[in-house]
Each structure stands twice: as structure tokens, then as C-alpha cells.
Amino acid sequence: MGTFIQQLINGLTVGGVYALIALGYTMVYGVLRLINFAHGDLCILGAFIGLTVLTGGLGGGHPGAALLALAFIAAIIAIAIAGVLLEIIAYRPLRRADRLAAVVSALGASMLIENGIMLIWGPDVHVFPPDLLPKTSWRVAGAAISFTQLMIILISCALMAALYGFVNHTRFGTAIRAAAIDQDAARLMGINVNRVIGSVFVIGPALGAVGGLFIGVYYREAYFTMGWTYGLSAFIAAILGGIGNIPGAMLGGVLLGLFNAFAAGYVSSSWQDAITFLLLIAILILRPTGLLGERVAEKV
Amino acid sequence: MSATRMGLAGGLAWLLCLAIPALAGSAWVAIFATFAIYAITALSEDIILGRAGIYDMGHAVYLGIGAYATAILNTAFGWPILATIPAAILAAALAGGLLSAPLIRLRGDYLLVATIGFNAIFILVMQNDPGGITGGSDGIAGIDVPALFGWQLASQNALFWLDWGVLGLALLLMRNLDRCEFGRALRYIKQDQLAAATLGVDTRRVKTLAFALGAGLAGLAGSLFAVQLSSVSPSSFVFTESVTLFAIVIVGGPGSIPGVLLGAALMFVVPEIFRDFAQYRYFVFGIAMIAVMVLRPQGLWPRRRAA
Fold first, then answer.
1. Which of B48, B59, B289, B292 should one mutate to test binding to chain A, selecting the residue with the greatest count of A CBs within 10 A?
2. With contact defined as beta carbons under 8 Å apart, do A252 and A300 qualify?
């Protein structure tokens, strides 16, 4: 029973992070019908920027809450700007071009960011400072939940609730949903679709930067190819919930986190990833619109 | 230029390239031999992606199946290299045909994601060494040199001519594909699958055949790849390789033979010239992929419209 609760806590922690990153994939796909392959790399760029602030401001002592908050804010702002630049440079000129041109542009952006990280920070694994967060942990039903885990779960939930409220209960959120359903109709209703697309490239990367920095803080390391590893998991989570669907990305992230945790706890870890990919392919074949996606009649 | 004169010019260029071992040093011979292998692979990706319009982003799998088939049959079972080649083609074509059954039911992006999944599973299976035949992460080393009528193709030059000979055959195949009924069916499906189906094209059969043909040709290239390196390991067939092949076709020009060859040259020959800047390679590729797509979304050397 203790193992079960422990895997549940581990799964919820990782799942919260996946959900934060998956939201960026799903929002961009919802509005542009484009898989933003560079999203995972943007998130890890956020982790590196946060790490640089932390190590730069750390005089060898214990970091205060202020420094940690500063690291998160710096990562969020930097990655939101990077997201907007990415859209303007690599995606906007291709909005009316063949879809595959945008896919290759996204793949190029992913390579550019990943190798840009390598050129700036080097190819080695960077270790996060050990005394970043309090070492406190609590015992829950025979399992332990650490301060870091509790922080990740709570902040992820809060951010997701805020996003859900924003998208569903504000004017601008309604504009985002309208543009996702039909861009041309939204434009005719007076919605500035360019602003909607721009906002999606601010919100998604900003949430992703938090997710990326959480990964760094939780696993206490960052390396340049991490964006591919964690980005792909988050992307699978987005598909699991139904790509383009915001509550779907949240549900998919948490489910995938739990699935990974229990697979690692009960199945051999070397086959764990293979099981995740088999799950992905099974979902694509049996229910391609995901768990929460609507079944859409094929347009002729 | 008319299609015939284009073909003549291409044939002449191919003949001229056969003289590379007589003119250039051994380093260049190796580079151009590798180019030939990747050019064949890129052409095989073009059958599926460029001509049939199926978003295949896991093409390194078929290259890998061909390479592993040759490596395993040669090192574990003692088959001569040339005898493993048909087996490699068959194994890859069979895998392509089988995987296409679930894949072609999917559309667009979903298909693309599923092929990424197959690529990842392939790598994990090779690394986990099922039954002790794939050698795990280290792969398999010590593959023989091919022998033709008792003559050992041991030198780098002999391998070069073998690779370029196969490239010549692949180019002929691609050229004929443009003109036959099957090639026209592929183009039709790419442009409008529903219209093709209503006019009596069996879209399922044509797509499965396109997968089998593309995978089989990639398997042939994989066989040559294993011989060229005399070893295989999972890292040669990872997702990044599939992305590179995908990008070669789209950046060069889908369905365009000179375009795909140009794309393969840019991705595999140009980096060799700038060896000193190796760590910038993928950084520059990233910029180049964005720049080409923004400035020339149709590709560097697009297919001629009236074909």
C-alpha cells in the first residue's frame, strides 16, 4: 500500500509538469493546426535560464525564496519572448504555405534551440544546487511527499485552474476558443486573430518555462537534449487527452505521469518507454481524437 | 529543359561522379560513398513522403532493419554479404507493408506522430537486445566485405562503385516511377485521395505498396550502410536521422529527383567540408531549415509542374 501511495505521489508530480508543457503543444495546435516541435526545447531553455539566475545569485549560501521566485520570473519572461519571436520568424510567414513547410520549419527551430543551448551552456549535464529547496517531507499513509513535490503539484494545479478560468470565462479567452474553431469566421466577427495567435505563443511557452524549471528542480539536472525527452512525453500527454483540447492536455498529463510512475514501479524500466509509445500508437489507432476530443466528421 | 534532356544530363553527371576515386583522395571517396547511401535512403523516403504524400517521420526504421538484417545474417549465420541483400530488402519491405496497415488509416499529423512512435520503439527494441541478436547499445561489429564472383570488394574504391552502382539503379527506378501507372496513382492520391478513390484507384493497396517499395529501397540502402561501416548500432537510426531524411525531401523538393539529391548533398556532403565547425552543424541546419521554408516553401529544386 505504501508503494502504491508513493507511486501515486510521484506520478502526480511528474504528471503536473507534463500537463504544464502539454498545454503549450495543445494551445498552438488548437489555433494553428501545427505541431510546435520546438516547444520542448523552449521549456528546457527556460530551465537553463532559471539555473543561470540561481547559480549567479547564489553566494554559496542558502537561496532565499526571493531568488527562487526571480529565477522563475526570469525564465517565464525570457521564454515568452522567445515564443513570440519563434512565431514571427518561423511560423507566421508559412501560415498560408503547405503544411509540411511549417512542420520542417518547426523541426528546424527545435534543432536551432537545442543546439543553441549546447553552444551556450556546453554539452555536459548541469547539476542544480543541492540546497535549493527545504528538505522537509511529510508522511502520508506510509509514503513520503517532499516539499518539492508538494510545491510542483500545488503550483501546477493553480496555474491550470487559472488558465482554465481565463480561457472559459474572459472575453479574450472566448476569442482564443473562437479562433481555434474557425479562424476566418472569428476574423469576420472582429476578432484580431493575429493577437490571439501571438497570445498563444506567450501563454504556452510561459507555462512551459515553469514546467521546464520544475523538471530541473525535481530531477536536479539539466542537459541540452532534455527538451526532446520531456517534450515528447508532454506531447504524448497532449495527444492522449485529445490534441487541441485544453482540459484534455491537463488530464492527459496527469494520466501519463501516473502511468509512467506505475510502469516504473511495477514493470522493468528499460521497457517503460516502449510501453508508453505502444500506448500512444494504440490511442492514435483506436481513438485518434484522444480521451476528451470530439469525434469530428471527416470534411470532404 | 525537357524531361529527356534532364535525364541525359543526370546520367552524364552520374557517369562523371563514377570517376571520383580516380580524381580525389580517399577521404572524399568515403564521403561520396556515404552520400550515395543516404541519397538512396532519401529517394526511398521521397516515394512515401514526396510522391504518395504520406507523412512518414520514422523512415530510419527501414534503413535500420536493412542494416541489422545484413549484420545479423552475416555475423551470426555466416551468410555472404551479397546473399543478405535480398533478405534485407525483403525484411524492410515486409516491415513497411505490415506497419502501413495501421498507419494508412490515420491522417496527416496523427500518422506523423505514430511513425515517430514506431521509430522510438525500434530503437528501444534494438537497445534491449531481444534474444541476444542485436548486440544492445553497442550494436554489431565485424561485418564481412562483400565478394563478387570470388573478387573481394575490400577497398574503399570498390565499395564506392558498389554504392554508386546501386544509386544508379535507384535513380532509374525513380525515373520510371514517374511514368508508370503506379506513379500516377501515387500523385493522384497525394492531390486528392477521395477523387482518386471514386475513379477506381484502390487507395489502400497503392499506399501499402508505396510503403513496401519505399521501405524496401531503404532496406537496400541499410545493407550498403552496414557494409560501408562494417558495423551497426542503434544510434545510426534514431529519430534525428528520420527528421533529417524528412527535411531532405521537403527542403530539396518533394517528388523531384534533383531536389532530393541536392537536399541529401546539403545535409551530408557540405558538413564534411566544414568539419572544423562540427559542433555548429545542427545549429546551422536549424537556421537553414527555417530559412529555406520561409523563402522557398516549395523546396530548393521543386518538381516541374507539367510532368
1. B289
2. no
Q: In a mutagenesis test of the B interface, which of A111, A225, A228, A235 is the best target, namely the one with the most B β-carbons within 10 Å?
A: A111
The answer, yes or no, to whether residue B260 has pLDDT greater than 70, is yes
Decide if A15 contacts A213 (C-beta within 8 A). no
Count of domains observed in chain A: 1
Q: Note which residues in 148-207 of chain B have CB less than 8 A from chain A.
A: 194
Is residue A110 domain-resident?
yes
Cβ partners under 8 Å of residue B306, min gap 6? none
- Identify the closest residue of chain A to B102 by CA–CA distance: A285
- Contact across the interface for A119 and B247, Cβ inside 8 Å: no
**Strand partners for A137:** A146
B211/A238 Cα distance (integer angstroms): 28
- Domain range spanning residue A33? 2-125+144-286
Whole-number Å distance between alpha carbons of A32 and A21: 17
Contact between B33 and B166 (Cβ < 8 Å):
no
Residue A178 lies in a domain: yes
In a domain, A132, yes or no: no
For chain A (length 300 residues), average pLDDT per consecutive 10?
86 96 95 94 97 78 77 96 97 92 95 96 91 84 90 96 95 94 93 95 97 94 92 92 90 92 77 84 84 58
A232, three cell numbers: 515528447
Chain B, window 62-101: residues with a beta carbon less than 8 angstroms from a chain A beta carbon: none
Here the CATH number for the domain that contains residue A180 is 1.10.3470.10
CA of B282 vs chain A CAs: smallest distance (Å): 6
Closest CA to A197 of A78, A34, A74: A34
DSSP characters over A106-141: HHHHHHHHHHHHHHHH-SSPEEPPTTSS---EEEET
Looking at residue B19, its amino acid is: A
Contact residues on chain A for B129, CB-CB shorter than 8 A = none
- Residue B188 cell numbers, joined: 493522384
CA distance B38 to B270: 13
CA distance, residue B296 to nearest chain A CA (Å): 9
